[in-house]
Amino acid sequence: MKKVLLVALGSTARADCLAHAIHKSHDSELHSFIQSKNPSVMHLSKSHQIGKLDDFSAIKKYAKQVKPDLAIISPDYAIAIGVADILSELNIPVFAPKKSLARLESSKSFTRRLLEKYQIAGSPEHKVFESLEGIRDYMLYLKDFVVKPDGLTGGKGVKVFGEHMKTIDEAVDYCTEIFSSKGIVVIEEKLIGEEFSIQFFTDGKVCLPSPIVQDHKRAFDGDLGPNTGGMGSYSSSNHLLPFLTKEHLQDAQHITNKVAFALKEEFHEYFCGIMYGGFMLTADGVKLIEYNARFGDPEIMNILPILKNDFVEVCEAATQGRLDKIKLIFEEKATVVKYAVPEGYPENPKKGEVIDISEFANTTAKYYLGAVEEFDSHYPWKLKMGTSRAIATVGIANTVEEAEAIAEHSVRMIRGPVFHRKDIGTKELLQRRVDHMAQVRLKK
Ligand code: AMP
Ligand code: GLY
Description:
Blueprint: E1 2-8, H1 13-24, E2 28-34, H2 39-44, E3 47-50, H3 56-66, E4 70-73, H4 76-80, H5 83-89, E5 94-95, H6 103-106, H7 108-117, E6 126-129, H8 135-142, E7 145-149, E8 159-160, H9 168-180, E9 185-189, E10 193-202, E11 207-209, E12 214-215, E13 218-220, E14 224-227, E15 232-235, H10 246-267, E16 273-282, E17 285-292, H11 300-303, H12 311-319, E18 334-342, E19 354-356, E20 366-369, E21 372-374, E22 382-385, E23 391-397, H13 400-411, E24 418-419, H14 427-443
Parallel strand pairs: 1-2, 1-4, 2-3, 4-5
Antiparallel strand pairs: 6-9, 7-8, 7-9, 10-11, 10-16, 12-15, 13-14, 15-18, 16-17, 18-23, 18-24, 19-22, 20-23, 21-22
The structure holds adenosine monophosphate and glycine.
């Protein structure tokens, strides 16, 4: 029996999805170090420890006790502060990059500079600023731009001119705010097009793509409201998207292969784990928005449930530099993920509200628990919500439309003060994406 240590926040459905994949693996036993309680992860684990992700001595102590054959680290924060480094020091194979390599996600300026240094095409026009000097002129020059704080912001720090900032003064104020907390700012040309995510499994030498996914960051139907961690996502049975071809996938693959090579050149070490590219398909082709050094949330739920390979074996092969021997196979199915979130999310979520999911009892609904805890002795059917995304439902079917119907039916079974996006994966929304892309190409 292989022992697998999962290091995770706990309060995300991504952690639960990983726990299910490890639990399902034919010869594996799950042990979890989680920052907050997740009843499902705890239930699936042979042992668990609750602790802070920056408490390295607690993580080491638990790892020494468990003696895992493999560790998988889920959240960006834990990867960015070097949990992979401390586990590697204990000679544990880790499916997650070391701190230095994780700068690919934890520093946007690092990644832009890396692409520049290795002459990898795909970046929008951009400049890195450490003070206000020249910033206003650069904004005026670009006209349409985005402002990005350099570090991790949970996907919520990027502000787009014309949407989150209406005037140049507002944009300069935002930069001043970032500099005053010792930050660095990246200003870049605003890309116009359709976004997509690809989660590549990599051992630093080969990058194996999983089905392409489109996430929905805005809180409300019709892409309205504030940005969130992601309200839901879909993928198609051909593993592309309705507005995107195999050639676009190849472009993203080329960029990613070159970046993996550049990382090895820079650090003399291989990036092992997930290189999750956030791309934009524009009138000028595929552009890179950013890389994350981990699975996406919700995007992980579009890929792991249809992965035919044994997940733990794939991660192990990556840690041994053997991914060239692995053929990743995903079911030719479409998937739709919908998150139920507390009313008021993301700006003013009410904490501690109780939801009832007992309608799931007599169904085969696929769902993953996020920011919820047990409520008295009513587990698993009554749960107390935190302030973040509560439960994700997943539909898997031959078409996106059918998968949407399944995910929607399931998410509606959740009783309590929650809401979700009804439009994710619908025929209408997919058509809008296709029409938007056609419009973008026409404008060129
Ligand atoms: P990031 O934290 O880099 O993923 O950015 C968060 C979101 O901001 C992305 O998912 C995009 O929707 C948007 N964004 C980031 N960079 C750009 C850009 N150069 N042009 C347009 N939108 C962007
Ligand atoms: N879905 C956005 C993220 O995981 O960063």
